[in-house]
Amino acid sequence: LAERLRHAQPHPASGEALVFEPGADGLLSATLGGRRLSSARRGREEARRLAEGVDPSEVASACVIGFGLGHHVRALHERMGTKSCVICLETDLGLLRAVLERVDHSAWLALGRCVIATDPEDAAGLTRQLKGLDGLLAIGVKIVEHPASKARLAEAGTAFGRTVSEVVRCTRTHVVTTLVHAPVTLRNMLMNADRYATSAGITALKDACKGSPAVTVA
The whole model's pTM is what? Predict the structure, then answer.
């Protein structure tokens, strides 16, 4: 994603394209094509209210449709806590680059608990991005729509909801299968423990049949 953003053309921050302005509460505000990306007066409160729509005691992951200026994604990230992840769809690379050039989100993005997807239908890509977060997904995911991005990402948001649902279903199957096999795996390890501890290693076999072809099965 960083590489793609490096080569993306940011929206020109002038005219009717993308216009940034300081908000009344100190947060940066902006409009894109005349549509406001966050409140010009109460951006912080707006972000907080959206984040409060997710109860971290019920789910460990949140999926938000639209990065916008990122204020609401950061608020959601902070509310969810350290044992959680946030998934965000943003298809407009030009907007994303322009925002990240002006709003410093580096500290919380660097924590590695936020995944930004740009293709709403790439289930395989999303699965790769979420590698290592399987357990959090299996606990439950809450999908949140960013009101300011709803019209802009209309069909993409709907498609991404389906993609996330598919990824979560597959992840839960994987996690449940792992848990079901865990007792058998542990039993096999314990049953072989005496052999691991008392049998000779393979060092003595070095060069035992040097020059001869062989198949070793372990």
Answer: 0.78
- CB neighbour burial string for 152-171, b if at least 16 within 10 angstroms, e if fewer: bbeebbebbbebbeebbeeb
Q: How many residues does the chain have?
A: 218
Per-residue pLDDT tens over the stretch 152-187: 998 999 999 999 999 999 999 988 898 899 999 899
User: How many other CB atoms are found less than 10 A from the CB of residue 88?
Assistant: 26
Cα distance between residue 192 and residue 195, in whole Å: 5
Cα–Cα distance list, 99 to 11, 50, 84, 94, 211 (Å): 9, 19, 24, 9, 64
Tokens found for residue 140: 């439950």
CA torsion 102-105-110-113 (nearest 10°) is -140
3-state secondary structure of 116: strand
Q: What is the pLDDT of residues 90-115, one digit of tens each?
A: 999 999 999 999 999 999 999 989 99
